[in-house]
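step 3/5: co-fold with flavin-adenine dinucleotide
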Amino acid sequence: MKPVAFDYERPRTIGEAVRLLSESPDAKIISGGQTLGPMLNLRLVQPALLVDITRIPELTRIEETDDAVILGACVTHAAIEDKRIADPSHGFLAEVARGIAYRAVRTRGTVGGSLAHADPAADWLSCLIALGAEVLLTGLSGQRRLTLTEFVRGALDTQLEPDEILDGIHIPKLSKRARAGFAKICRKSGEFADAIGVVVHDADRRALHLVAGAVQGQPIVIAAGNERTPGASWPPPLESLREKLEQAGLGGDAYELNIHMAALERAIRNAQAS
Ligand SMILES: Cc1cc2nc3c(=O)[nH]c(=O)nc-3n(C[C@H](O)[C@H](O)[C@H](O)COP(=O)(O)OP(=O)(O)OC[C@H]3O[C@@H](n4cnc5c(N)ncnc54)[C@H](O)[C@@H]3O)c2cc1C
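step 4/5: write tokens
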């Protein structure tokens, strides 16, 4: 099948892209096209206009501050895999990028496109939630900054307004002694996950973030200890993790519960070995 006919614009600034989106209610942003391409071909989406944002220099920016790295939305998975970005995570982001699909997809697919699509099985969503990342959204009324749990409302559902672009991702730097672990359970390597487990333990900040991804809706945030809620013990007791997954809705399905527990256990082991 082929896409329906559409107009195509390639703006050079975020402002111009926002204007195009606001003037055409049936417009759709395209970045890497790795998800949108097949959706267009299958006519699951039929936009009147495609706004290609990959030539906007600001969207490939890599900024570093004392405590964070800000990535433009069009930074590709391959750029992260190849460590062409300032790394806030002691190599953790590169390791995650390496497991996404295969190299051709990673060369074009973008971190902003992945988050904006909000597939519950996407790797960035769970990992960046565990790292405490925030997204920067720019629209006609200016810029706003949301945590990823605020941004994602559910499967394929976000807070993005029709005139808004996800323009960047703000990722806090891990402290020196922090450890992060990731595990993805899937049938073939490089495929979307059946279960994702992520753990980030930052003892200096007394923070422990555990996330179970590839669930039905938003990833399940199991623990998010910080300075105000200390006591996050390390390694976390597995029995209490299982209880929390059951309480979060996986209790009724023994298979789902077991693979998500297995992903979390592996993530914890990977963090300990890191
Ligand atoms: C064969 C295959 C295997 C894959 N395997 C995995 C995998 O294992 N793990 C994984 O996580 N992903 C996987 N993916 C998805 C891949 O990571 C894509 O990069 C990602 O889903 C979308 O990024 P994109 O830049 O291609 O976005 P596009 O396809 O261009 O856009 C996706 C959606 O997001 C919107 N959008 C894009 N950018 C923005 C923006 N900056 N602001 C607002 N809206 C925006 C678009 O309008 C569209 O609705 C796979 C894809 C393929 C084709």
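step 5/5: annotate
Residues 7-51 form a domain with the Uridine Diphospho-n-acetylenolpyruvylglucosamine Reductase; domain 2 fold (CATH 3.30.43).
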